[in-house]
Amino acid sequence: MNKMKFDPASNIQMLRQFGEFGGVNPSITDSSTFTFMSAKTMLDTFHGETEGCFLYARHWNPSNKFLADALAAMEGTENAWVTGSGMGAITTVFLQLCNAGDHIVSSVTTYGGTYAFLKNYLPKFNIDVTFVDITDLDAVEKAIRPNTKMVYTETMTNPLLQISDVPSLAKITKKHGIQLVVDNTFTPMIFSPYLLGADIVVYSMTKYINGKNDAVAGAICASTAFINAISNVNDGTAMLLGPVLDPLRSSSILKNLHTLHIRMKQHSYNAMYLANEFKKIGLKYNYPGMPNHPQHELMKSMMNEQFGFGGMIAIDMETAERAAELMEMMQIRDVGYHAVSLGYFKTLFSNSGKSTSSEVPVNVQNEMGMSPGLVRFSVGLDNDIEATFQTIKSCLTDLNFI
Length: 402
Ligand SMILES: *Cc1c(COP(=O)(O)O)cnc(C)c1O
Known about the structure:
This protein is of the alpha/beta class. The chain folds into two domains: 3-30 and 61-257, 3-Layer(aba) Sandwich (Aspartate Aminotransferase, domain 2); 260-398, Alpha-Beta Complex (Aspartate Aminotransferase, domain 1), CATH 3.90.1150. 38% of the residues lie in helices and 14% in strands. It has helices at residues 8-13, 39-46, 62-75, 86-97, 112-121, 137-143, 166-176, 224-230, 237-241, 247-257, 260-280, 296-302, 320-332, 362-367, 385-398; strands at residues 79-83, 103-107, 128-132, 148-154, 179-183, 200-204, 218-222, 285-286, 312-316, 337-338, 348-351, 374-378. Strands 1-7-6-5-4-2-3 form a seven-stranded mixed beta sheet, with helices on both faces. Strands 8-9-12-11-10 form a five-stranded mixed beta sheet, with helices on one face. Helix 5 (112-121) links the parallel strand 2 and strand 3 (128-132). Bound molecules: pyridoxal-5'-phosphate. Pyridoxal-5'-phosphate is lined by residues 85-87, 111, 113-114, 154, 158, 183, 185-186, 204, 206-207, 216, 218. Pyridoxal-5'-phosphate binds at residues 85-87, 111, 113-114, 154, 158, 183, 185-186, 204, 206-207, 216, 218.
């Protein structure tokens, strides 16, 4: 692997995906079933033995294939599969890799829905989970048991914005013969987890990849063997649980993917600007692009530099009440919207403890160092971020917070 040479944006740009009649965009295939001239070809397709033949849209659809190919090009994986949500992608991977009685090691700081699935849902199948501080590599290795099937983490974790040391985690999982699964939702293009050693990369495309907040979608980027396994008609988790993405949506997401690199650069530029200003006014902030972040150097060693340190930044208002006052005022003054989710063209902010991490019990939130006053920003594509900062500052001043 040569990280310096890997350019996820150019890899997408180089794809030659045409539509019927020479359309510059691939055609949308709005068909759930496909005809066959020969009975034998249909049977072979059922057995996964035909290349380029489509059988039924829950299995594969040409529009989904175009998007999956573009995502695989972005990640450097052999293959990909697209799902109706990020949770559809994540749960498919867990259920494909684990049988009843198996064990998972997971970062304790993950997306709230993922945490809830691991903690509250998997016990139904007698699948056990050990939650660890993912930045503590010794703790990760010590948690691995003979029945452990995978280590799960987010490259940049939600909402603490910790950076997972993917190369070191990969060394541990390879040594134990288990899979490393990484959710790269916060940092598409910035990190290429597969090239850093992860086996499977999952996404909520609802966030940065689509970037419009008009759709919920997910993706699994992995080897062809794994993608064939999840879509196997007899025992594939994706084929049998059916979390497939609608082809109309795949087609709109594919077009948005082509501007992802420009958006990531602007999100990162704006978040870095805010981090520097927050520092100057003495605000307690957390941004991996600043040297005071505990994994700043690690991030630099792992990232595809040109896309910056990402658009996620957090500030600490100490109490949930103060966080609420600030967020309400910022919304009135048009800094952005008080809403969950991220990767939108407008700035979005929410209090993690009371929203996207509310599935995590308060004592666990405290243990992981999550302040009740944590306000997570997904910084938008603002053309005048200086003006945005001045508005944020006016809110802080008028509330006597600075
Ligand atoms: C939103 C999110 C998910 C879940 O994705 P959906 O598309 O909402 O199902 C998973 N992981 C992370 C990091 C997320 O931000």
